[in-house]
Every structure is written in C-alpha cells, then in structure tokens.
Amino acid sequence: MRIGAIVFISVALLIGCVHLNINRNLNALKRVELGDEPATVIDTVGTPDIRTDINDRRFVIYYQTKAGKNANEPITPDLCTPIAFEDGRVVAIGDDLAETWIREEEDRLRRAEAAERKRREAQRVAEAKQEAEAARQRKIAALEKEVKPIPGHKAALNLKLYRQLLELDPDSARYQKKVAFYEDRLARQQKASKARADRAAKLKQRQAWNQAREERNKSLRQYTGNGIAEMAVHDMGPGSLYVWIKNVSKQIITTHPDHFTLLDNSGKPIQSEISSSLDSVLEPGSISHGKIHYSDAILPSELVFRNRESGKISKSFK
Q1: Strands of 311-316's sheet, edge to edge?
Q2: Residue 205 sits in the same domain as residue 220
Q3: pTM of the model
Q4: What strands, in cross-sheet order, belong to the sheet with 89-93?
Q5: Is 129 a domain residue?
Q6: pLDDT band (50, 70, 90) for residue 6
Q7: Which domain holds residue 286?
Q8: DSSP for residue 77
Q9: What is the CATH classification number for the domain harbouring 301?
Q10: What is the pLDDT of residues 130-175, one digit of tens each?
Q11: DSSP label at residue 204
C-alpha cells in the first residue's frame, strides 16, 4: 500500500508540474509578438520543448500548451504552439510552417541541384569547345608550318594542305583563294601532263609504225581484189602512200580520185590529197597508179577503192 501511494503521489506531482508548465507557457506566449528576435522569445517563454531547423534562415520552435493522455507521453508538435522564425524574426505564432517550409526547402534544393548540374554541363561544354578550338588552332599552326616551304609548282600537295586548312577555317578568304588558285594550277598541270603523255604515246605509236613499215609493205604490195580489180599499196613513210589499181577483168573499168577513201583507226575518213594520175580508163590488164598524201600525224587503218564496175576492194594497214 505504501508503494502504491508513493507512485500515485509521484504521478500527481508530475501531472501537476506538466500543467504548471503548460499554464506558464500559455501566459508567456501572450507576450510574444511578430518581429521579435529569438533571444527575446527565449527570455520571455524559456527554452523551447522542440526545435526544427529548416535552413540557415528558417526554423520553428515549439512550446507545450496541451497535456498528453498520460504523464509519460513524449512531447510532440501536436501538443505545442509553434513559433516560426525567418531571417532572425518571428513571422508566425501558432501556425506550424515547418511542413510548408520543408517542402519549399526540398524544392529549393532540387532546383539548386538542377541548376548546379546545368551549370556543370554548361561548363563542360564550354571547356570542350575551348579544347576543340585550341586543338583547331594547333592543327592550323601545324599545317601552316608544313605548307610554308612547299614550292608553288607542287600544286597537288599545296592543294591538299590548303583544303585541310579551309576545312578547319571555312570563312578564311586567304584559304579560299589559295584553294581556288591551286585547283586551277593543278588542272592546268594535269592537262599539260596528259598532253605530254598523249604526245609520247603517239610518238611511240609512230615509231612502232615506222619500224613495222618494211614488214607491212610485204603484205600491202601484193595485189588483192575481187576478180575485176586488184589493188597494191606501198607505204612510203609518214603521210605518203603509192597506190596501184590493176584491171584483171575482160572489161573496161575506170579509176578516179573520188573512188579512194583513206580511213583512220576509228573508221573515219582521213582528209587526203590524191594524185590526178589515178583518174584513168583501164583496158583489161592495164594499171592505174599514183600517190596519196595525208597528215603525217595520222596513222591510216584502211584504204578503200570503190567504183561502179568493181564494187569495193580494200587494203588493211593492220
């Protein structure tokens, strides 16, 4: 019985103390005003029962103003009157701004984090651009150093390097002019080189043609035809032929310069000067002969004789 009485008395005293503290807080809170500083509030009401810090500008303190269901129940914000501070001054009494402020702070932190990520990305992009520009300038400097000693007649190499420089700096008027200049020079060099190669090929062909003349004449000088007329040819050298037409029939046939056509390798007629001695009326067994002159720059492929009596006969130079 004595222990039970002691416990009852202790609880009663505790409850009494709680109510006494609540009453004291209620009376003191009446003297707190908006705009008060934290030190003033603590001097007036005392040390708060709970404190929630939001950030370095905002915090909320709580003073118990309600009793719990029992004396051992912990103090929670629901049992308290909140006082909110912002920038060192009371901005709300009785309104719990903690949750609102916490959400605002979380939003602020998210925005700040997003802004920081954006800033870091912008900085990364800027640094990448700076590095790319520095690399571009290094390439330009290296190419300028490489192209400087190259002589102007080496158009292909100059053009290659200036095209690379123009790619690195498309707006450079100097590089644009250099590329245009060396494109023109290279085209002229290639044209001249092709002309030289063509001349060399023609000279080689002419030399081979001349070297084969003796062997070619063995075949050309033999009479061939169709039983009415036969033709023999002698290659006298560049631009000159000697031609014989023999009437091997029993009728009279005619020859005329217009009856002769000299063809080139593509089958096109070659402009020729044909001797008037080839304008003849041939009795059976008789021969008409004369010279044919043409440009010595052309190699003939075939000589064709065609008239009404004999039809077509020809000699190939291949």
Answers
A1: 260-263, 302-307, 311-316
A2: no
A3: 0.53
A4: 50-53, 58-64, 80-86, 89-93
A5: no
A6: very low
A7: 214-316
A8: G
A9: 2.60.40.10
A10: 999 999 999 999 999 999 999 999 999 999 999 999 999 999 999 9
A11: H
